[in-house]
Structures are given as C-alpha cells and as structure tokens.
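Annex B. Sample input.
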Amino acid sequence: MPLLEDFEEFQNVSPLLQWAIFIVGVLIAIVAIISIGVSLWLAYKYIRFNRTKNSAGLTGKEVARNLLDKNGLQHIKVSKWGSFLFGNSYSHYFNKVRLRRFTQNKKSVTSMAMAAEKTALAVLDKEGDADMQTRIRLTPFIYFGPIAFIPLVLLGILIDFMIFNFTGVATIISAMVGLGLYVISFVLAIKVLKTEIKAQAKALQMLANENMVTAEETAMMQELFHIYNVQYVNDIIMAFLEMIMRVLNMIADTQRQQSFGKRN
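Annex B, continued. Sample output.
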C-alpha cells in the first residue's frame, strides 16, 4: 500500500488527517458497493412482484383512490408522475399522490404496495402525525441542503476575490453555512425514514381492513418495504460519510493554505 504522503494532494497536510481522509474514502467505496448490491436486490424484487397480479384486481391508481376516499381525503388527487425519472410520492402542498405511470396502471402487488404507502403518508398528514408535520415543514432542507454546499463555497470564493483579497474568510464562512445545511438535511433524512416506516405499517393495515390483500401478498409487500428501508439507511450512511469527508477536506484545505502562507 503506497504511503499517503507520496500523493501530491496530501502534501502539507498532517499525517493523522491524511489517514482520516483515506479511511473515510475507503468506507465510502464500501458503502457504494453495498448500495449497488441493494439496488439490484430491490430491482429484482420490484420486478418480480410487479409481475404478480394482486388478488383485488386493482391498479395502483384505483388502490390509491379507494383508500383516499375511505379516509375522507377526496380532495387529494392521484396524478401521473412519469415512469423512471421521478418516484412515487405524496405532496402536501399540491394535495396529490403522484404515481409512476407503470405503478398507476398495473394491477400488481408492487403497484398496490407503492400506491398504498404513498396514500398512507396523506393519511398521516391528515391525522396530524408529529413526525409527518416536521417532515412537511422542513422539506426544502431535506432536498436542497446537500446540493447547497458547492454553490455556497463558490459564492464565498467570489466574495473573497472581489472584497477580501483572497483571505479565505468568506469562503470558510460560506462553507460552514453549507455544511450546516448538510447536517440539517442528514438529520431530517432520519425523520423521513421514520415517517416512511409508519406509512408502510399503516398501508398494510388499511389494505387488510378493506380486505384487499391476502396473507401472502402482505408478506411480499413487507419484504419490498424492508428492502426500500435498507436502501434508504444505506443512503443516509453515505450522506453521513460524505459530510465527514467534506469537513476533512475543509480542514486539509486550511492546513495547505496555512503552509503556503508560511512559505510566502
């Protein structure tokens, strides 16, 4: 294994920080490999259950509409949301349960599971579930927090160039703000997972109450939900490691700048 000191990008960085960056990089690679495996596992189960017709003979759209109406949510629309580019979702602000075209039109176990789970999010919203309300209020941070880091750093660099003569003050401040948003989005991702698990349980309960599923279909849906949760946890871990890597890189950049300043 080559020494980290031999790499030019690690020059002027403390050995301890070098190893920390290396270890986190290895962990990111491991999690990425696991993520590929989980994605393939999910794709296999999704397709397999999507080829299994549900016993109720209902499409995803019919399942969602039926459960929404049974729970007094006639004002919530069921709309089409592309095929692969966008996922199935519930929007509090637009009063919609959005389903992929194939989810909406298929009479499969997968379609029933996805439609029921997203409908269950609407029901949790109606019931005033505390976790769901937090998720709704802070949705912008969940989606925009991770992608705000780089634009904020670039803005800081621009301000440093125009006002502070490359002192790095604005860059560091903007990077810290971006990192703060990243941390918030990471914490909220855990809250999203909690609401998804609640929605999955409620979806199965609603389907059972309406006699729309058999015991075998319930087991299939539980398995599908479980894999989705594993994938989501994997994504959270990856986000956490990326956050740590950003912090380490910020520290490394500071050490390099300090070393450059001493030489000049």
